[in-house]
Amino acid sequence: MIKPECHTNDPQRLHGLYLITNDDPLDVLLPKLEAALIAGIALLQFRRKKTPNSQLEQEARAILALCQRYNVSLVINDNLALAKILNCGVHLGQDDGELAEARATLGRDAIIGRTCHASLTLAAQAAREGASYLAFGAVYPSTTKPHADRVHLQTLINASQQFAQPICAIGGLSVENAAEVKAAGVDLFAVVGDVLNLTADRIPDRIQAWHDRLES
Fold it and tell me: 172 lies in which domain range?
């Protein structure tokens, strides 16, 4: 049995496409995730809002096994207890616990992300408290969080200049609109539907398009 482990809190790993799971049935989702992992993503987040609590660990372990096979870090959304059980990283919203507690619980090498919405003040606080990356959004309208406040590109530019931590953008991102976000200095591009709304056989081409966009 492979021992669960988190990857080191290394900024070099926190650069590129950041895939967040959707609520597809697990038997549909797993082939899509494997296709994405083979094609090459920087980070995967486990976010399953419709899964009963009693099944979360089982599902997370199945996805963690895939991540370990392809040497990609897994981050658990808003669930520090589960992240500790699996020895994974965690992503915390503003109402999902203290970052300092997460760092003390998971250790200095764990990947810990923090939602900063559109606020450089919240980002500065997260940076002081030891966040691995600072997440801003929504950049564009998003079906995942349709009521999320929008963040201006200038805020992303300011964040990339102000903070040493990698900057993550989320919200309606696609290959087609990512160029100006990349130009703003963003490091991590978090997506859900742009990849996972596709069938598994179409995902490799979409991720290759992302690679071409981000490396151009």
Answer: 16-215
| Count of domains forming the chain | 1
Q: Is 8 a domain residue? A: no
Rounded-to-integer distance, Cα 21 and Cα 23, Å: 7
CA angle (73 as vertex; 181, 109 as ends), nearest 5? 100
Surface-to-core class of residue 1, CB atoms within 10 Å of its CB (0-12 exposed, 13-18 middle, 19+ buried): exposed
**Ranges in the chain, pLDDT < 70:** 1-12
**pLDDT score, position 8:** 52
Give me the residues paired with residue 167 across strands. Answer: 134
pTM given for the model? 0.94
CATH code of the domain containing 167: 3.20.20.70
**H or E segment and range at residue 162:** helix 153-162
What pLDDT does 1 receive?
Answer: 31
In a domain, 88, yes or no: yes
Say how far apart CA 134 and CA 71 lie, in whole Å.
23
pLDDT for the residue numbered 216: 84
**CA 137, chain centre distance (Å):** 12
| Residue 46 and residue 77 in contact, taking contact as beta carbons nearer than 8 Å | yes
